[in-house]
Design a protein that fits this description.
CATH topology: Rossmann fold
Oligomer: single chain
Structural class: alpha/beta
Number of domains: 1
Largest sheet: 9 strands, mixed
Radius of gyration: 18 Å
Helix content: 25-40%
Number of helices: 7
Shape: globular
CATH architecture: 3-Layer(aba) Sandwich
Number of strands: 13
């Protein structure tokens, strides 16, 4: 409108930005880039940052260009699995949903983010991506491993049941998670069929389920905040003290990173 003056926003008022890589899905004949709303609202409300959805294009946006515009990264869960080609795993079974577009974006982005000290929080599929990106491998069907329980959800149940507490995890000492919530046990939800087989060398096992499945990792040698969780703290995070502590710590790391930009 003529005569209307633009409002100048000082640089100090710039919101902190957390990038969230999307899933690549076909909706009918058209490709879409999607992120679950629960992750977007967790970034907005729990971390108090601006969510920036990162498309996972056939030719990925270079990691350096993305890192120049963000203060942190949230790698989310997904119905898809990390491609076993990335860790020399067996070919996936018929009907397994993959997302190689997402893999092509997240693998180099994770490595670049950790090298740059950009805070990263990796949940469910993101937890598995973190392990694979740094040289680890995955069980594609955890429940078929000797001595392991069934970590899958009942997809026919209501969401509150699917995301309800499923099993305990025990926090180990000397990891990031123990510094955030202490060395103790608590119950978490469980909605995954894949899990860590061989842990990547730079990672530390921060928590495990009673059957030995690794449920949380950190990276002691990293310059910045690096935490991976196999469960979903974003689900009803306000009602869970552990989830609140995790998002608060990640948010502080994001704000610290953003203060240098």
């Amino acid at each position: 409108m003529l005569g209307r003056r633009l409002k100048v926003v000082p640089m100090s008022a710039r919101p902190f930005i957390v990038g969230i890589p999307c899933d690549h899905r076909m909706v009918g004949a058209h490709p879409f880039h999607m992120v679950g709303e629960k992750y977007i609202t967790a970034v907005r409300d729990a971390i108090e940052a601006l969510p920036l959805l990162i498309p996972v294009l056939p030719h990925p946006i270079p990691a350096g260009e993305l890192l120049a515009s963000i203060d942190g990264l949230l790698f989310t869960g997904s119905p898809s699995n990390v491609s076993p080609q990335l860790y020399n795993g067996a070919a996936p079974r018929d009907g397994t949903q993959l997302d190689e577009n997402r893999d092509a974006t997240t693998m180099p982005l994770l490595k670049a983010a950790v090298a740059a000290g950009t805070p990263v929080l990796c949940l469910c599929r993101g937890f598995q991506e973190l392990n694979v990106a740094f040289g680890g491998t995955l069980h594609q069907h955890v429940h078929e491993q000797p001595g392991r329980g069934d970590h899958r959800e009942d997809k026919n149940a209501e969401l509150d049941v699917q995301y309800g507490p499923a099993h305990d995890v025990r926090i180990s000492k000397d990891g990031l998670l123990s510094r955030l919530v202490g060395e103790r046990s608590f119950r978490v939800n469980s909605l995954h069929s894949q899990g860590i087989d061989r842990m990547a060398p730079p990672l530390h096992a921060d928590a495990a389920a009673p059957d030995g499945t690794i449920e949380a990792v950190s990276m002691p040698g990293a310059k910045g905040f690096v935490l991976g969780l196999q469960w979903h703290p974003e689900w009803r995070w306000r009602e869970n003290e552990v989830s609140r502590a995790i998002f608060a710590a990640f948010g502080q790391a994001v704000q610290k990173q953003g203060s240098f930009r």
